[in-house]
Amino acid sequence: xxxxxxxxxxxxxxxxxxxxxxxxxxxxxxxxxxxxxxxxxxxxxxxxxxxxxxxxxxxxxxxxxxxxxxxxxxxxxxxxxxxxxxx
Length: 87
Known about the structure:
Keywords: DNA-directed RNA polymerase, Transcription. This protein is mostly beta strands. It has 1 helix and 5 strands. It has one helix at residues 22-27; strands at residues 4-15, 33-34, 39-47, 54-55, 63-74. Strands 1, 2, 3, 4 and 5 form a 5-stranded antiparallel β-sheet that branches. The longest helix is centred in the N-terminal third of the chain and has 6 residues, at 22-27. It is elongated and about 55 Å long. The two termini are 18 Å apart. The model has no long low-confidence stretch (mean pLDDT 78).
């Protein structure tokens, strides 16, 4: 389908220790238009390069987690018709 595209995004999520759930942050992106990605996130697959997080100076106790995510985006082009095929 022309309206779907796959992209890889290097992401940083800033979390409070009481809500340290990266997957919850990723799930909050699903089925919503994201201007930075210019599309609607349909699925994600994340890959963490390490298990380290960096504590942010001045914003204690928040910490940042870096990871790479493979995203499937719904990316319709202008004037594209969406719908089921005629039967």
